[in-house]
Amino acid sequence: MKAPHIKPSSQLANVRYEIRGPLARRALDLEKAGHEIIKLNIGNPGAFGFRAPETMRQAMVENLRDSDAYCHQKGIFPAREAVVMQQQSRGVMDVTAEDVFIGNGVSELILFSLRALLDDGDEVLVPSPDYPLWTAATYLNDGKAVHYPCRRDLDWQPDLEALRKLVTPRTRALVIISPNNPTGAVYPREVLQEMVKLAEEHGLVVLTDEIYDQITYEGAEYTPVATLVKHTLCGTFSGLSKVYRSCGFRVGWVSFSGAKDHAQDYLLGLDTLASLRLCSNVVGQWAVQTALGGYQSIHDLTSPGGRLYQTRAAVLEGCKRSKYLSVQPPRGAIYAFPGVDTAKLPDFDDQTFGIDLLERKHVLVAPGSSFNVLYRNHFRITLLPDEKTMVEVFGRMEELLDEYAQG
């Protein structure tokens, strides 16, 4: 007897995560066939030889004996208090350990935060291009993602006038991602002030994704959004994955500040969701205090001569030399978002390019349309490979684009 077809949930209809989608699965097949693939699709520092600071691993080992039991659903106190101290050092004074939730990475907390907030049809303002989990999590939790444009001609800054026009009576939250994934934009203070002003005027929850908070280049100024929010609730998301090169530890956090009295029911709902999963990974949490309070080695990597800085320079040089590519120099994060000149390649399509680059040149990138944009002439690459590898990548891309130009 044939089993009936199992249909997926209709909530998955608007869920996309092509960073680990069909192209990534095809790359695995090619690797199994013996090909070496240069993977630029995902920001996974450990896969490129980066290591978490030794002091973090030592902190976990020394506290391993205290990690067998469940901890509090919000996380261990030393980790939460370390987040509080970091926020206070940045000028966010209205946050306590009770306002901090530790999760299995920021991804889990994004899902929790939207699950506790949204009812059917509620809207969330999400940047475009976006980190696609924000859009996916909105739809998975019965909401509707409304994308506000971040335009290349504005250095990938939000179009504030367009953003204002998208607010409706159903809008519940404004998502801000700075330093930005995928573009590398770092929003100026004055832009963030206008975004916060809009949120406060309409009573929107501000959800600010700052996982790349200390990864900036050439003097770009990172502004903690929470320092600007006074009259509405602000949730600041960050974690160990990127700045501390420890994606596999799966440790992230969200800290709530700003106006909280009117949000107690929401925060209680978030506490309930945290309780349902009992707690997050206890072992990894022991690294938080050491990480935030110790030497910030990320600055060695983003300064001239540092590996991230030099690879970024190789990307800028590769685009400068190319007959077809250009890029807005990333001011932060670990990505670049090059674009292709469609005047020279009018039939260019980012998905086709992604497939051809993988199959013919053995390089894996993330097509730009994966990040919820309408145009199809961009792609995202990570800055994690070394400089020599990136030079090789741009050589292969130029070969493919020459082939396109020759028909």
How many structural units, i.e. domains? 2
Q: Could you tell me how far the N terminus lies from the C terminus, measured between alpha carbons in angstroms?
A: 52 Å
What's the rounded overall pLDDT mean?
Answer: 95
Q: Give Rg in angstroms.
A: 21 Å
The number of helical segments is 13
Report on the biggest sheet.
8 strands, mixed
The neighbouring-strand order within the major sheet is 2-9-8-7-6-3-4-5
Give the structural class.
Answer: alpha/beta
Annotation, overall tally of beta strands: 15
Q: Which range best describes the helical content: under 10%, 10-25%, 25-40%, 40-55%, 55-70% or over 70%?
A: 25-40%
Summarize the structure.
The chain has 407 residues and is of the alpha/beta class.
